[in-house]
Specification:
The chain is 41% helix and 15% strand. The protein has 385 residues and is of the alpha/beta class. The protein has 2 domains: 116 residues, Aspartate Aminotransferase, domain 1; 248 residues, Aspartate Aminotransferase, domain 2. Helix 3 packs parallel to helix 10 and helix 4 packs parallel to helix 5. Catalyzes the decarboxylation of L-tyrosine to produce tyramine for methanofuran biosynthesis. Can also catalyze the decarboxylation of L-aspartate to produce beta-alanine for coenzyme A (CoA) biosynthesis. InterPro entries: GrpII_AminoAcid_Decarb, MfnA, PyrdxlP-dep_de-COase, PyrdxlP-dep_Trfase, PyrdxlP-dep_Trfase_major, PyrdxlP-dep_Trfase_small, Pyridoxal-P_BS. GO terms for molecular function: aspartate 1-decarboxylase activity; pyridoxal phosphate binding; tyrosine decarboxylase activity. It comes from Methanobrevibacter woesei.
Length: 385
């Protein structure tokens, strides 16, 4: 820190220089991110609530009412009439909260300590953080030939230490949806908490169903589902950070509650204490702004681009890992090493990412990627081929 104040214009110039080094979604060359540029209206609302703190809801009753409405609205999107939960920083925090709820619930009602969580190899790395923080053991279930969780493997790995089973609705690497309906049956039969990580798919699957896409049930319509993660800052077009954790029952929040005696509300279940209300307000605003019709239109556009891209890849001779279920395409060159292909694309200023299971180039067709960007990408892929 400087000894004396620095002129505002100099500070802004310095910050602009730093910001110029950042990639920009609007350029359409960020191919591997599951985030995108927030809608301008959501940004506008976000700025109006910068001074709000949902960690002390007694002081910000209006903003807390907004959060309650948002959680209820998302709950209804997932077939739950009375939802409980919070808007948090993202899928990672939401997943940690879910696993914490499962652990505490199992400890209180089943006297399980040193518990285990069963999750697919395709699960997001946030569950490794959760296991590390909560002193839980990860038991990895196998994937089937379609890279989805093998339900037989799940059944085999259940023990008297199992506190949770995790299924994914939109895997990070391939965008696939696990058979949540079968996991629900297993969870009910064994009285085990089931969490669904729909951080990626949560704001698209319900709207794709409206368009006639066929997906098995994945939400609270299944009686075994206890909680769900969803990220409004992905396909919901809310500003970062905006994740959501939705619980079927209030008792899952209660088992995490910690006394907060000096605040206006005397118990707190979230991990973060000071919570920005701006994310909640922006999520509320953008959900009302788009409505079901608007999000259905977005989902259609993203899948149209996905279908266009994967069909053109096939024409060029590239090999798809799987047929896309959501707006994510993973592929390889038939003869070129994946790392080499990634380097070739990076040299052409495409920001790509590679999956690890299996190793492949992954392109996430988010809202900032337009058809003209895909045509440029396909032109480069043709030259590389």
């Amino acid at each position: 820190m400087e000894e004396k104040p620095v002129d505002k214009e100099l500070i802004l110039k310095e910050l602009a220089n730093f910001q110029s080094q950042d990639c920009k979604y609007s350029e359409g060359r960020i191919l591997g991110s599951m985030c995108t540029e927030a809608h301008p209206f959501a940004k506008e609302v976000f700025c109006k609530f910068l001074d709000s703190n949902l960690g002390d809801p007694g002081l910000f009753k209006g903003t807390k009412s907004i959060e309650d409405k948002v959680i209820n609205s998302i709950g209804k999107m997932f077939s739950l009439d009375n939802a409980y939960g919070n808007i948090v920083t993202g899928g990672t925090e939401a997943n940690i909260m879910a696993i914490r709820a499962a652990r505490n619930h199992a400890k209180k009602y089943k006297n399980i300590s040193n518990g285990e969580i069963i999750l697919p190899r395709s699960a997001h790395f946030s569950f490794k953080k959760a296991a590390d923080m909560l002193n839980l053991k990860i038991v990895e279930a196998n994937l089937d030939d379609n890279f989805k969780i093998d339900v037989n493997s799940v059944e085999e790995k259940i023990s008297d230490k199992t506190v949770a089973i995790v299924g994914i609705a939109g895997t990070t690497e391939l965008g696939l949806i696990d058979p949540i309906d079968k996991l629900s049956d297993i969870a009910l039969e064994n009285n085990i908490y089931l969490h669904v990580d729909a951080a990626f798919g949560g704001f698209s699957i319900p709207f794709l169903k409206r368009l006639g896409y066929k997906f098995p049930d994945f939400d609270f319509s299944l009686p075994g589902v206890c909680s769900m993660t969803v990220d409004p800052h992905k396909m919901g077009l809310a500003p970062i950070p905006a994740g959501g954790i939705i619980f079927r029952k209030e008792e899952y929040l209660d088992v995490m509650a910690i006394n907060s005696p000096y605040l206006t509300v005397k118990k707190q279940s979230t991990i973060v204490g000071t919570r920005l209300g701006a994310s909640t307000a922006a999520t509320y605003a953008i959900m009302k702004y788009f409505g079901k019709e608007g999000y259905t239109k977005i989902a259609r556009n993203l899948m149209d681009n996905t279908i266009f891209f994967k069909e053109e890849l096939k024409k060029l001779g590239y090999k798809l890992i799987v047929e896309p279920e959501l707006n994510l395409v993973s592929f390889n060159h038939p003869d070129m090493d994946t790392k080499q292909l990634a380097n070739e694309l990076e040299s052409r200023n495409w920001r790509v990412s590679t999956s690890s299971c299996p190793v492949a180039i992954r392109v996430v067709l988010m809202n900032h990627i337009k058809k003209e960007h895909l045509k440029e990408l396909l032109k480069d892929l043709k030259e590389i081929y």
